[in-house]
Each structure stands twice: as structure tokens, then as C-alpha cells.
Amino acid sequence: MTRVVHPIERESYRILRERVDLSHLPPLSRAVTERVVHASADLGYVTELVCDEAALEGGLAALRAGAPIVADVWMVAAGITGAGRDIVCPVAEPAAAELARDTGLTRSAAAVRIALDRVGPGAVWVVGCAPTALAELLTLDAAPALVVGLPVGFVGAAESKAALRAGGLPAVSNVGEKGGSAVAAAALNALLYQEEAT
After folding, report:
1. Is residue 38 annotated as part of the catalytic site, yes or no?
2. 25: left (phi over 0), alpha (psi -120 to 50) or beta
């Protein structure tokens, strides 16, 4: 199925490219940066987003091979429009609440453990809401194909993203407290739309 680009989206990209030149970025880094800026109308992401082209290439290859996609919350999952497949997101399941209660983890962190049991290594993880979900993922032997780590908040968001970058996992993140479901989904959609284009 070919994605149809709405005229509003086309105009938004024209305006974006009029305001900032990202032609110096490698192709996937540019696609991710543009889609995140498009989703947020925040040009600050141009300098704050941390993309690694090799990691993005690996993530795209994994998506093309059918790697599972895990989202930390349903707001992220709902924003992933290019998937054409189920997205694993157990945060609302009773098992996540029970594990959180039994372990003292947040529900989002508990859901990461449950999701890992389901998907195993090689998944693409998209964290846009809960810093605790990203922090928990970093404690596990998840062997992800890619982590889109863009949680938002004043408590733990910047720190969890710094830990992600320091940990050496293939990732996209940003510097600072901002992030969120829309930008995390946008970053993944940029790759999924590349997948559709080929």
C-alpha cells in the first residue's frame, strides 16, 4: 500500500525546509529529524535530537525483516501510523499492574518486563512517555534492534536518555526533558515510511 501524503503535510514540510536546511544530514537522520520537527513544530529538535545513522539503518533493516514494535504507552502506539502490524503495549494489562504492585516498579517499567518476555531480542522499542520504562529497559538484556528513547518529563527524562546514549544501544534520543508520545511515534514513523517507500 502506498502512503498518500496530504497537501497539508506537504505544505508543512515546505515551510519546515524553508526555515531550516537539514540537507547536510544523512538520509535517515534527516527523515527522523524532519518528522519529529513536523510533529512538534519545535525547531529546537534540530540541535537537540541525537541520531546515529548506523543505528537507524539497523532499525530500518529490522523493521523490514518484521521485527516486533514495542511501545511504552498506548498514546505512542496510537501515533504509530505506518506499522501495518500489531504493536506490543502491555501497560494497561492487569498483569502489568500486578507486577508493579509486587515489585515496586512503575506500571510502565513492569510493562517493559512483560513485553520483553513476549518479543525477545531484536525488537524495536519506542518510549515516548515514561522515563521509568526507558530506565527499566536499560537494566534488561533486551538486545534491541533500535530504541526510540524520547520520554518526557521533569523527573528522570533527561537522565534516562543520557543513560541510553551512554549505554551504547542503537538509539534515537534527545538532550533534555522534552519529548513525548507524538515525537516518539513520529521518529518511528519516519523509518516506517522509508520502509514503505522501498
Report:
1. yes
2. beta
